[in-house]
Structures are given as structure tokens and as C-alpha cells.
């Protein structure tokens, strides 16, 4: 199997199980590879470890949820992505240099297009260029953090 196909399949699996406890062994088992071989291949292709990818994407998705699900408690959003109530704020602040509360208040709510992207499987479009897929994924979160008047209309 082509490495890019394998990595894309692994990313799809991870993304479809973000709100569940997921381990490297779960992903490797799904692909029928040993977790050690899979980890080496993932890092070779993406430049990021599987664990770091899962952790980063869960935190990025929780940041999107902070904007979209304003009625939901911040601690509950953290719990949805596998963080304890006390750990979520510190991990979020470490990654984004601001607390989840400050982040939620800093930008006006983002409307429909981001929400539909967030819930579709196409948030990270499939491509043979895995690094391009990662770059696209980071740009979605970057928009959330940099534009305090982001106006996105549904299409």
C-alpha cells in the first residue's frame, strides 16, 4: 500500500473518532499494521508523531467548538475531547497563549460555513501531499484566532 494512502486513511480514522478516547494502537489495528511500524511511517511522511497529531487536532477541534457551541460549558468541551476539567485550560493556554475563556470572548461567533466544515469529513481534504493537508488543517484554526470580525457566509 502506498504510504500516502495509508497516512490519509489513518488521518480519516483519527478525525472520525476525535470525540472518543483513541490510541495509537487503535489506529494501527484499524490499518492492520504494528503500532511501531505505523508510528515510524506516520512521522516519516508527516514530520509529526501520531500522538502529537491526535493531541493537536483534538485541541484545535475543541477551539472550534468553543466558538460554535457557546452555550456549552468550557469544561464539558474539554471532557468531550478527553481532557480532565482541570487539565483542559492549562493545555489550551500552553498551546494558544490564552485561556479558553479569553479565546471564547475574543472573537465574534463564526457562522455556518465553519460549522459545516467542522462536522464534515472534508475538514482535512484527502491528498497525496500529506504536509499540504496538515497546512490546510492549521489554516482553519488560524482563521479562528486571527480575525476578530471573520464573516463567513454559508454557500
What's the gist of this structure?
By secondary structure, the chain is mainly alpha-helical. The chain is built from nine helices and no strands.
Mind explaining what this structure looks like?
By secondary structure, the chain is mainly α. The chain has a single domain (3-145), classed as Arc Repressor Mutant, subunit A (Orthogonal Bundle). Helices cover 67% and strands 0% of the residues. It has helices at 3-16, 24-31, 35-46, 50-68, 74-80, 85-96, 100-106, 112-119, 130-146. Residues 109-123 and 138-155 have low confidence and may be disordered.
Question: What is the topological layout?
Answer:
Elements: H1 3-16, H2 24-31, H3 35-46, H4 50-68, H5 74-80, H6 85-96, H7 100-106, H8 112-119, H9 130-146
Distance between the termini: 36 Å
Number of domains: 1
Secondary structural class = mainly alpha
Q: Provide the low-confidence segments as ranges.
A: 109-123, 138-155
Helix content: 55-70%
Task: For the structure shown, list the relevant keywords.
155 residues, mainly alpha, Arc Repressor Mutant, subunit A, disordered C terminus
